[in-house]
């Protein structure tokens, strides 16, 4: 039986796409600063049907420069690592993590809160990279998971309630989204072998 694999993506393409998306986040935060935080209202308000579309763009918005800066390096590193497994896999992981993270925040966050920021997507990239090796059984992906866990594993504690002002709900949803994306993209690979 012949096997097809997606074409490998170059590092320059990964940096261009993921870095470009990060640049959009920085431009939006600059616009938000100039407009006295007018974009913050486009975050996710829990259980408000009118805010459901905000699930799609809330990851691009941040509550100030410190929030954006803290998300920038993990978004770039984990996003590029995800993108290197293929552009389509990156898109699927990004979209699934965004939607599951946003819907989880929309369903579970406290009344009167607004959720925004890329951390749900970051958790999606993290768990995607951690579990895809389980489905593919490829040593290279398992080794990447070990390195990623060594660097970012303690971040997984962010899926637990505890830190005021941090949306554990979005983190948890993003983490679940990353696992779902890995399953959707790689579970058939383990069955074919």
Automatic annotation (TrEMBL):
Organism: Tessaracoccus lubricantis
Gene3D superfamilies, alphabetized: Rhomboid-like
Major localization listed first in the record, in broad terms: membrane
Protein name: Rhomboid family intramembrane serine protease
Lineage: Bacteria, Bacillati, Actinomycetota, Actinomycetes, Propionibacteriales
Regions that span the bilayer: 55-81, 88-108, 114-135, 142-160, 166-185
Membrane topology: Multi-pass membrane protein
Record's keyword annotation contains Protease: yes
GO molecular function list: peptidase activity
């Amino acid at each position: 039986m012949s096997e097809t694999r997606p074409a490998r993506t170059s590092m320059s393409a990964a940096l261009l796409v993921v870095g470009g998306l990060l640049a959009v986040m920085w431009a939006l935060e600059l616009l938000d600063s100039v407009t006295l935080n007018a974009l913050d209202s486009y975050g996710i308000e829990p259980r408000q049907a009118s805010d459901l579309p905000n699930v799609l763009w809330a990851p691009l918005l941040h509550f100030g420069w410190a929030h954006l800066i803290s998300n920038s390096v993990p978004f770039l590193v984990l996003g590029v690592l995800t993108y290197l497994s293929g552009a389509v896999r990156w898109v699927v992981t990004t979209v699934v993590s965004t939607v599951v993270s946003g819907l989880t925040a929309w369903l579970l966050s406290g009344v009167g809160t607004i959720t925004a920021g890329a951390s749900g997507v970051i958790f999606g990239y993290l768990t995607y990279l951690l579990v895809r090796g389980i489905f593919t059984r490829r040593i290279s992906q398992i080794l990447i998971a070990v390195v990623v866990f060594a660097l970012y594993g303690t971040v997984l504690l962010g899926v637990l309630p505890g830190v005021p002002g941090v949306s554990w709900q979005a983190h948890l949803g993003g983490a679940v989204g990353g696992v779902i994306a890995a399953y959707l993209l790689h579970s058939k690979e383990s069955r074919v072998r």
